[in-house]
Amino acid sequence: MKLDQAHQIVVEFLANLGFKADDIVIEERSDGEYYVNIVTPESVALIGHSGEVLLALQHLVKSIFRQQGAVDEKDHVKIDVDSYRIRQEKNVTDMADRCSLKVIEASRQIALPPMSSFFRRLVHVYVKEKYPQLTTFSQGDGNYRSVMIALAETEEIPESSDLYHDLDL
To answer: Does the reported pTM lie above 0.85?
Structure first.
């Protein structure tokens, strides 16, 4: 990634939308993986409801980066605003921790609330790495798809066991 060029693209893009950033931090996390955090007092407008505007912003900025040669086609770029995504990921992994411990205590599977494919994958990977005695699987359709956490040796319990409604998450 050409960092100076990427920084300038973000500044100009935000200015064209009528926004000003107090700071733009661009980090290389690993080979070909970049994190761009926009710090701004107008974060609510750039994040939107449940991060929907942020997802659109990411798509547009990544497209402009590629079009103007700031990144290679194989590079992965994650756009964030005021570390919103980091906080969301932490909230989801904290919930996965709480539910995993309840599964271990109660020897019953637990359904997490419906979530996006990104967060479902995060839960699958997180639980697999941290709790080898547990297993995860997705169930449901569309916007109502959720992750189930269960003991690894437990048979799948019917969907009626969606316990997340009764949990203090």
So the answer is: no
Domain 87-166: homologous superfamily in CATH: R3H-like domain (3.30.1370.50)
pLDDT in tens, the chain (169 residues): 788 899 999 999 999 999 999 999 999 888 788 999 999 999 999 999 989 999 999 999 999 999 998 888 888 999 999 999 999 999 999 999 999 999 999 999 999 999 988 899 999 999 999 999 999 999 999 888 999 999 997 545 444 444 454 445 5
- Out of 3.40.710.10, 3.30.300.20, 1.10.10.410, 3.40.630.30, the CATH code matching 3-82 is 3.30.300.20
* Residue (of 148, 83, 160) closest to 115 by Cα position: 148
Query: How many degrees, rounded to 5, is the angle at CA 138 between CA 132 and CA 139?
Result: 140
Contact 149, 100 (CB under 8 A): yes
